[in-house]
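Input:
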Amino acid sequence: MGMSLQTAQTGRAKVYDAIVVGSGITGGWAAKELTEKGLEVLLLERGRPVRHVVDYITEHKAPWEMEYRGRGDRQGSKEDQFIQSQAGPFNEYNAHFFVNDRENPYTFDDAKPFLWIRGYQLGGRSITWGRQSYRWSDLDFEANAREGIEIDWPIRYADLEPWYDHVERFIGLSGQAEGMPQLPDSQFLPPMPFTAGEERVKKGIERAFPDRRMTIGRSAVLTQPHNGRGICHYCGPCPRGCSVGAYFCSLSSTLPVALETGKLTIRTHSIVHSLMYDEAREAVTGVRVIDAETHENLEFRCRTVFLCASALASTQILMMSTSARFPDGLGNSSGVLGHYLMDHHFKLGAFGTVPGLEDRYYYGRRPNGIYLMRFRNLDARTRHPDFVRGYGCQGGAGREGWGRGVAEAGLGAALKSRLRTPGPWRMALSAFGEMLPRHDNHVTLDPYVTDAWGLPVLRVHCTMGENELAMRRDMKLAGAEMLEAAGCTDVQPWEDVYRPGEGIHEMGTARMGRDPRTSVLNSWNQLHDVPNVFVTDGACMTSAACQNPSLTYMALTARAADYAVQAMNRGELKVG
Amino acid sequence: MDVSRREALHRLTVLVGGAISAPTMGAILSGYRAKAQPPGWIPQTLTTDQAKLVGILVDRIIPTTDTPGAKDAGVVVFIDRLLDDWVQPDARGRFLTGLAAVDEQIREAHGVVFHDATQAQQNALLNRLDQEAVQARRERAHPLPFFASLKEWTLVGYYTSEVGATQELQWLAAPGRYDGDLPLEEVGPTWA
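Output:
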């Protein structure tokens, strides 16, 4: 991308049509949609600039080109990335796309660890995201209302369906149409193939459980050229950055399009301190920024704001934006700002050996796995007695490699010869479960701790509830039961300690709803209290479902941008 | 990788649809030869004698056959690096103690240092240590015995080296296509 970082203009003279805070998945989408609709946009990113292609410094590095062969700089991580290095996607190759934990602290109760995994740079976490993309259905949007849990979503699938279409046509999403009501099909590029082992397990599971469906992962990775971006070359490790732009990322996809309009200004190293609320106009008139490098205080004026800083960061900005009218945070007349934090709980499932197929293997590193759709609590027949909602499973089958030699007896030429041939087929299922919204799970501004720029840090309180714990028992057992039924041997349920946040699907804390007394945002992701402020990242979520959420954030962002521009054009949006 | 090399790679991938042989791709990508144990290399944590013993041991785990063995693939350099600034101090201590015990056990049984024992005497000890290590892993013992670490680091060091990945096994930086189900004989050795 010819990323021309233009000089953003401060002060009263310049009024941007919109300021977008954050350049990750939703910030990129907001910038693209708003500029394409003619608005002049300033995009503020708190981290460093990252240039597409040029700054993917480890893209095709082999392990022998790395200091620790890809095993990571353990001592260095312990000092600077002691939280980030605990997250699944973090490794020696992509550590530079995760924050420094010393410089970016947050707090939590010792007994209740929360992992806040962040990427403060242009492109945000869209560089390192998992790319798995699934629509929600009304099973999800209606769940709270149906079960009388917390508040109802103010929207339904029909509201979002055209916007799913819209974002999928742009991002390029490979997958297989299945016609299953709980997981609506997307606008698909051709699916990636299964391995021989997966094909066998799929047949076995679906024979034993005819209403369950295992499909290939729906992944925002191109299986054919799309919108000027190149096809996947199956090198494998997407989160190092992709120079042909084969996976969706702000740097390769949305930001270039937004820059092309000539209406986007990007300012990096720009930490948003707060939004400026004008009591007389009952609107936000600008954004206060601290330059991360110079610590200089700056003000940028605008007519509307899109907060896309990530769920917790957007909520933190609202909490720091206090005024006489909003002493507890901008748009927080309801008092629910910061509450109902959710994630997806995981790190458990089952694995087993797929017998036979010794003469089959594969070519290339598929950056994708399988997806076993939710099958619990879809209707009366699939109702589980112990919990509400459900879970989906990701995973895959492959042949064991040289690593199996570590745990097996044997030395010398015989060991070396044995490891030259791939080992048995192993199938893994890893379940991702819905977490219910609970008032107790919340964030506040820590009254004692500030960051390097003098801003109060977040204190996070988050635990799993009874429903999640009951669901987890089933997630292991059902996984093992399916693998057994599929003919796997040595089937073992597994579970590891899950800490909230490590799903990197943190959601909620500024939820959508119909009633301004119980929600922060309305059905258009607009603050009930301050109509020219939109929050379209994960903060808006009223419930969590069990699907990977980014696709839904994209659709919500595009929908909100469309609404904002129409409202501005009609003169309905009270603007700064 | 610099941009010109990446571009060259990309162009090749496009031209031949991914059907580039592993050695060709390796040559394009690696840009330099394997870091085998360079002449005159001085270990950082191990003493010269310890490094010599580790060299013998790693070659008993992964010997030279039709492809180079662990020592020639730079595994002693790798293990010395891990001991220098990757492992915890207590794990470093356990490793060095375990290494010394290899010599001691041979001396107690046969009155010579490991280096001077017969191959049969050496193999008898290593096979016993290997069995104990595998058993300890099965029982999820903590900490794991010395030999469990030695074997793990040897395999990791070997198969993530350029020699292990590209000569013993096969490695493609950018395969260019994906096929989920092929006859094994068409694919060849284990993917590194």
